Amino acid sequence: MSVTEIAKRSTRGSVVLFAGNFVSTVFLAVSSIVIARLLGPASYGSYTLVVLIPQIIQLFVGLGVGSAITRFSAYHIARGEPAAAKRFSNNSMIFLMLFGVALSAVCYAGSGFLSAVVLRRAELAPLVRYASIAVLAQTALQASISGLVGWNSMGTASFASILQAGVRLCIAPVLVLSGFGVFGALTGYTAGYLVAGGAAAFAFYALKLRGVSGGGGVGGFSEDVREMVSYGLPIYAGGILIGLATYYVTILIAAIASDAVVGYYQAASNITVAYTLALGAITLALFPAFSSLHGTGADTSAAFRHATKYVAYMMAPVILFLVAGSHLILEILYGSQFLAANTYLVLLALAGIPLVVGSTVASAFFNGIGKTRLSLAVSAIGAGVLFVGAPLLGSALDLGVDGLIYAQLASNALAAVASLYFAWRYLEATVDLRSIGAIFGASVLGYAAMLLLSYLALPSLVALVADVVAFLFVYFTAAPLLGAIGLADVEMLGAAFEGLGVLSEALRPVLKYELLLLRRLRPG
């Protein structure tokens, strides 16, 4: 497989996963908005805390074998060894499902303790016990998606994400409207993972693993699992650290604030999910791409430099748009009762800036080429800062929820610095800081255009549409003029997105506009 083909496949994979994540995000956003409006801030805060427990327990699934499915599948396929890829995939799925059963039982048995000690709300124990089903279902879904991505079945993986969100959208609001309250919302949450997890696992086996051997019996199974754990354990440890640190913030909010404030914070967090899921899709697609490049002996450092630039080009404007339009977005989506979340939304969006300046690509880069200890080191740095900074800024300095988000920003920033340093120091991979700076400069100009429009006092929906048009026009005009991208970049993006149907057609005018500016105004 050539480097060009791997790059195109990665781009197509990113787009397909992004499209699937976008649709699923829309479904999840609609259901979250409806549920939040129906439950109100306090009950929505209770729902947020209940699902927090299975989410935390989910972090401990697999000992890193979930990541190994993607890496080992892509690596062996690129080397022309499909039988080995099938064997590793099959054995990893068996191992992960057994792990999921065990942790689901832990969640059920420990619901009383977890509700009283972690959430400080013992009355939520029955709901936490009910939510334990979601641990196993989510394990099946995530393991199957990881396997499908490793086998380059991005469309099926995306459909599984959409199915999960669609089922939740269909069930949860109806049950809440029927008077089941938090229990109804939780039922929709659990049902989404059950249906999608079962469907994804079936599709993975039917499409990719049909006829696979048992993996060499118990001895072969154990040997494969040991090899995958050896690879994935640093990723697993890093994921636990980052995950616990992130959920630790919500636990601290539960300790220092009311359920209503938890609801405000979650509403703001739901909006930032738009770009975090997009970054997750990009990471998931780049992971097997770097594995394939590594397997063919290609220049992964050059791929890292290009990838960091293009991720910033796509995602930096999203963050600045959320900052500029936070009040308007909250008002349209959640109504006036959630406007108190405005500050949280602005701060959470800003905390995402380091994620698009290397962190996202570095994670896929390190894991894809097998340098998982570097990923662990980055995760440990980020988690350590958050574990220390969150209680210090939130409680000791009495900055409340704002202080907790400041700690998240500091954690992301130091993790990004560490990622870029490790990439340079140990792998001789660098980023184009000048271009990334120009990308943020163009985004700031788009932000300024939105601020000017705010003085017109337009109706909310009209204002939002005007903001989108103005921001995009200013950003795509300023980006090439400031040197964010050049002719080679536009041509590379055009080639990478070629053959993607409707999306390719939608992007063509933008790329033509960029080329026009570059050729006429920056001829050099």
Structural account:
The protein is mostly helical. It has two domains: 3-431, no CATH class; 433-524, no CATH class. The chain contains 19 helices and no strands. Helix 8 (217-256) packs parallel to helix 14, helix 11 (326-334) runs antiparallel to helix 17 and helix 18 (487-496) runs antiparallel to helix 19 (502-521). It is globular, with a radius of gyration of 23 Å. It starts with a helix and ends with a helix. The model has no long low-confidence stretch (mean pLDDT 84).
| Rg, nearest Å | 23 Å
Helix share bin: over 70%
Number of domains: 2
Show unreliable segments: none
The beta-strand count equals 0
Secondary-structure element order, as H and E?
Answer: HHHHHHHHHHHHHHHHHHH
The chain-level structural class is mainly alpha
The DSSP helix count reads 19
How would the global form be characterised?
Answer: globular
Distance between the termini: 35 Å
Strand content: under 5%
Largest sheet: number of strands, sense, barrel closure: none
Provide mean pLDDT, rounded: 84
